[in-house]
Amino acid sequence: MVIYNEKRKAIIISIIDDMLEIEQLTNTLGYEVYKTFIQNRKKPDVNSYIGQGKLEEIKNFINNSNEIIDLIVIDGKLKPSQWFNLEKKLNVNVYDRIRLILEIFKERADKKEAKLQVRLAELQYEKPFVKELIHRARSGEHPGFMAGGEYQVDDYFEMIKKQIKKIKKNLNKIEIKRKILRKNRHFSGYYLLSLAGYTNAGKSSILNLLSNEKIKVEEKLFSTLSTTIRKIENNNIPILITDTVGFIEKLPAWMINAFHSTLEEIEVSDIVLLVVDVSDDFEIFKKKLKTSYNELIEIGVKSSILIILNKIDLISSKNLKNKIDFLNNNELSKDRKIIPISVNKKINITKLLDGIYSSLPNIVKFNIKLANNKKTQTLINWIYDKANVFEISYGDDININIECNELIRDIIFSKLKKMDNI
Ligand SMILES: Nc1nc2c(ncn2[C@@H]2O[C@H](COP(=O)(O)OP(=O)(O)OP(=O)(O)O)[C@@H](O)[C@H]2O)c(=O)[nH]1
Ligand SMILES: [Mg+2]
Q1: Which of 108, 199, 200, 312 to mutate to test the pocket of ligand 1 (most atoms within 8 A of CB)?
Q2: 24 Cβ closer than 6 Å to some ligand 1 atom
Q3: What is the rounded average pLDDT of the residues 170-195?
Q4: Which of 5, 143, 285, 309 could disulfide-pair with 280, CB 3.0 to 4.6 Å?
Q5: Are 229 and 349 part of one and the same domain?
Q6: Are 240 and 360 contacting, i.e. CB atoms less than 8 angstroms apart?
Q7: Ligand 1 close to Cβ of residue 207 (< 6 A)
Q8: CA 373 to ligand 2 center in whole angstroms
Q9: Is the shortest distance between the CB of 388 and ligand 1 below 6 Å?
Q10: In DSSP terms, which residues pair with 183 in a beta bridge?
């Protein structure tokens, strides 16, 4: 008897033991993981990713199951021929790891740019699969592509190529606009800070806390696909903080490229906060840190990277100490600021802000004297908006001690010149 249930069910097939992340990804897409199969082997089988025996076992399991299996997830990268053979044999939709991530992206893309980026990645993913289908169609096999429909695969391939071109053009236009905005932001004297790190590390939570914002924060992976830029709410030097798409292991270069413009914010930042979930098991913690760090290097970050260990509320102080010791002895992190925090429990947030402010590049401190009149009040208001005024005294003159970006100092001096103050 077949029992119908609301929640769609997936089976995961893997050739390695660690399945936590692929299970999380499957859940994120709204599937219940009904069963997992592991076939420990060094290399995937050329024809069907797993060996024939295992494949028979899975087929029997599906046929004899009381439940309908909606999806098979392969924790790895499938060649088109492997994908085709698996779907044909098991008669269930098969996603590999990249397709699964793509589907999550598709569901979560909200803004126009993110939608275009995901579509571009999807088309690029589909290209080799369509080629395989053309090949099979020509040799007489019946093509049932992606959703099982009958496509004119030749036409479809041409359509993919055209669409890729068109989307790239549109993305380029958005990118140009973004560049202009970025330039304006730079000339306004704001510092730029980016939140980077593995998906689910707590990046958006940090942005929300520092800017009193309420962007989506979830236990699921890839909650954020578009960048959000906000001002840090603090009576200090103004900083704009950017949230970015999370990193994940084993993403092909073309997929990362599709999100390049989102990640460009990281490239041009004055400071990057590399946010890490410190509550993960040691090996996973190391793996995610390494993946994220390599990604930052790949992007071409040249600014300071601060390592933010988030979620310390979930672990013991001994566990935290072990991880900090590891970081202090590790090439990639030993000379960097390491700041343990908990966003949820608001622990060490002042330390986080101090760490950020003390890492700002090109900070200058100086003193100015202004005539005490109405005209100068407008300038003082402007200075308060753009700089940290750490001392001000009113007498015959107004004496101000200021700390700010070099650029803002130059603007202040030029404004003073215009006012004939110096
Ligand atoms: N216990 C605990 N949970 C936290 C903390 N900070 C964030 N979280 C939780 O971690 C999950 C992920 O947080 P997000 O801020 O969405 O993470 P993100 O890095 O933006 O994730 P993506 O956008 O998916 O890449 C949410 O369920 C948060 O509530 C923390 O300090 N302690
Ligand atoms: Mg987020």
Answers
A1: 200
A2: no
A3: 85
A4: 285
A5: yes
A6: no
A7: no
A8: 48
A9: no
A10: none
Determine the pLDDT at residue 2. 47
If asked whether residues 315 and 343 sit together in one domain, one would say yes
- 91-114: pLDDT as tens digits: 999 999 999 999 999 998 888 988
Domain boundary among 140, 169, 198: 169
Please, where are the H alpha helices in 139-239? 153-187, 203-211
For residues 326 and 220, membership in a common domain is answered with yes
Task: Identify the domain containing residue 381 by its residue range.
Answer: 363-418
Q: Does residue 47 register a pLDDT over 60?
A: yes
Largest CA distance in the chain: 94
Calculate how far, in angstroms, residue 199's C-alpha sits from the geometric centre of ligand 2.
7
155 pLDDT above the threshold of 90:
no
For the Cβ of 343 lying below 6 angstroms from any atom of ligand 1, the answer is yes
Together in a domain, 71 and 209: no
Phi and psi, residue 317, nearest 5°: -70, -30
Mutate to test the pocket of ligand 1, among 24, 217, 289 (most ligand atoms within 8 A of CB): 217
What spacing in Å lies between the alpha carbon of 231 and ligand 1's midpoint?
A: 20
d(CA 397, CA 376): 10
Instruction: Tell the residue nearest (CA) to atom 27 of ligand 1.
Output: 219
Q: Note the ligand closest to the C-alpha atom of 348.
A: 1
Question: Is residue 177 assigned to a domain?
Answer: no
Q: Indicate if ligand 1 lies below 6 Å from the C-beta of 223.
A: yes
Banded pLDDT at 231 (limits 50, 70, 90): confident
Residue 381 lies in a domain: yes
| Mean confidence (pLDDT) of the chain | 89
pLDDT score of 120: 93
Rounded CA separation 126/344 (Å): 40
Enumerate residues with CB within 5 Å of ligand 2 (an ion). 203-204, 223-224
Phi, psi of 370 (to 5 degrees): -130, 150
Question: What spacing in Å lies between the alpha carbon of 368 and ligand 2's midpoint?
Answer: 42
CB-CB contact of 163 with 123 (8 Å): yes
Whole-number pLDDT of residue 94 = 97
The owner of tokens 């800070």 is: 193
What would the mean pLDDT of 37-65 be, rounded to a whole number? 94
3-state secondary structure of 358: coil
- Distance from the alpha carbon of residue 204 to the mean position of ligand 1, in angstroms: 7
Please report the atom of ligand 1 found closest to the CA of residue 345.
31
pLDDT digits (tens, 9 = 90+) for 289-329: 999 999 999 888 989 999 999 999 999 999 999 999 999 99
Q: Which of 67, 90, 106 is the last residue of a domain?
A: 106
